Amino acid sequence: MTTLLIKNAYIVTMDDHQREIPEGGLFIRNGIIERVGLTRDLPQTADEVLDLNGHIVLPGLVNTHHHFYQTLTRAVPAAQDANLFNWLKTLYPIWARLTPDDIFISTQTALAELALSGCTTASDHLYLFPNGSKLDDEIAAASEIGVRLQASRGSMSLGESKGGLPPDSVVDTEENILKDSQRLIEKYHDAKPGAMTQIVLAPCSPFSVTSDLMKQSAKLAREYGVHLHTHLAETEDEEKFCMQMFGHRPVGYMQSVDWVGSDVWFARGLGQR
Ligand SMILES: [Zn+2]
């Protein structure tokens, strides 16, 4: 058991009253904040004491959607002015050449940027695993930085030859995806409050994933109590795709594959009229 006392800081809370506490402090036990208040009202001793006189202390920010690997390709000129589908088609062949080292380095770059902006929990959506890359590369890189990670095991199973958007070279079989998802949950998922690593199942988007994989992923996630995440309602192109391919608009499609509930969150959600 370890304790940490932060004292003499200017504490800005995000509680119901948006309290700001000059001469404030925190008492932390085993990484969990136990008390927030005036320094003089807190326990005066701890295993470690930080005097933060002249500093402001804010709650950590939480990032709910990121693609760490894209930090390596965000300045590709041909993709800059494209709409979503053309942007993806320009970048898929470049992403297909990523290596496990690239996943590791991009994770550390992205997490360092996030940490510098005050983020203490980040959710990353990794859905390409070219050239032997694994979500394990990202988890190993994150553990060296120390930001809390929601590592999403993304996936793509609907390649061009089956009517999807991505080239077949960056998609995988449903069987491999589900097997690897189960392996990652069993190896890394920590369900305890304050866990540093949690696994999320995250098939990429309606235009890159089969309906069967959506249903199977939801079933697997619920067996283990892990959360579900995907892109949804990003653009009108996607809405047209969903109508043609599945006979539903994006949210209706999610209902049809059992993807609506308190254990699901969506990225974007802009395209619904
Ligand atoms: Zn995204």
Structure description:
This protein is of the alpha/beta class. It folds into two domains: 3-57, Roll (Urease, subunit C, domain 1), CATH 2.30.40.10; 61-268, TIM Barrel (Alpha-Beta Barrel). Helices cover 33% and strands 27% of the residues. The protein contains eight helices and eleven strands. A six-stranded parallel sheet has the order 6-7-8-9-10-11. Strands 1, 2, 3, 4 and 5 form a five-stranded mixed sheet that branches. Helix 4 links the parallel strand 7 and strand 8. The radius of gyration is 21 Å and the shape is elongated. The relative contact order is 0.10. Zinc ion is lined by residues 65, 67, 125, 231, 267.
Q: How is this fold's topology laid out?
A:
Layout: E1 3-12, E2 20-29, E3 32-38, E4 48-51, E5 56-57, E6 61-66, H1 77-80, H2 84-95, H3 100-116, E7 119-126, H4 135-145, E8 148-155, H5 174-188, E9 197-203, H6 211-224, E10 227-232, H7 236-246, H8 250-256, E11 264-268
Parallel strand pairs: 1-4, 1-5, 6-7, 7-8, 8-9, 9-10, 10-11
Antiparallel strand pairs: 1-2, 2-3
Helix pairs in contact: 3-4, 5-6
The structure holds zinc ion (ZN).
